[in-house]
């Protein structure tokens, strides 16, 4: 089983850690040089402040709606991100940090009685220790855990911020709910191409009749994504991948020295071929 843990409105949440008075109030975070809005609290989203909007274009609107504005503080965000990852490693050693506010997890070899309860434990511990709200999605693959996380984020009251796709019925229902543009790895251009072929949802993406088109447009990457959405894990956690890449010291030594040995062999073969022409000749001039 895989999980995706995503911190909610991470930069805005980080600002609230040391200013609890901001809880429940609309706030936005600006990019470098206070250029564009890069993070919004849920309250700011409700008030219609668009993501990525240049600050000078919405300055008057921010003031009218009483939205507090903060310059980005990346050292703070990086420090809190590291602390979140450390907490997650207390639940499984297999943690891959996907971005500053997201991490994939794998639970192979970890005894878990119930993943929903386990996810709630993660959520509560991070909130208690760091005051950072998170959502947790579980699935049989990375792509499915992404879908589950979106459901947990979309319906926090119904899911309590944790959703588990652990049955075929829930998988199909979740994929039919997920728009193709919201699928992990499907950007704007691919979305348009998929929609033109009547691939509207993630479930449509997994149908057999679309496999040839997906292979043509996305290649092996698309086929892997299709299998991931079918619940067949194709993308490993980074630490698992590194484990597979490990080689013995002897093999590593050979892989480094083999090209040198091959070059030396070529030199010796050349000398052997040329030796009879020189030293085997009765003509003293040939030796000279």
Short summary:
The chain is of the alpha/beta class and 288 residues long.
Structure, described:
The chain is an alpha/beta fold and 288 residues long. Helix content is 54%, strand content 13%. It contains 14 helices and 8 strands. The strands form 2 sheets. The chain has a 5-stranded mixed β-sheet with strand order 5-6-1-7-8, sandwiched between helices. Strands 3-2-4 form a 3-stranded mixed β-sheet. A hairpin with a 6-residue loop joins β2 and β3. The longest helix has 30 residues.
Question: Keywords, please?
Answer:
5-stranded mixed beta sheet; 13% strand; alpha/beta; 14 helices; 288 residues; 3-stranded mixed beta sheet
Share of residues in strands: 5-15%
Number of helices: 14
Instruction: Average the pLDDT over all residues and give the rounded result.
Output: 88
- Could you describe the largest sheet, including whether it forms a barrel? 5 strands, mixed
Give the class from helix and strand content and strand pairing: alpha/beta
Runs in which pLDDT lies below 50 for 5 or more consecutive residues are 250-256, 278-288
Q: Tell me the overall shape.
A: globular
In what order do the strands lie side by side in the largest sheet? 5-6-1-7-8
Rounded Rg: 28 Å
Overall number of strands: 8
Seen as an oligomer or otherwise, the chain set is single chain
Q: What is the CA-CA span between the terminal residues? A: 76 Å
Question: What share of residues is helical?
Answer: 40-55%
What is the N-to-C succession of helices and strands? EHEEHHEHEEHEHHEHHHHHHH
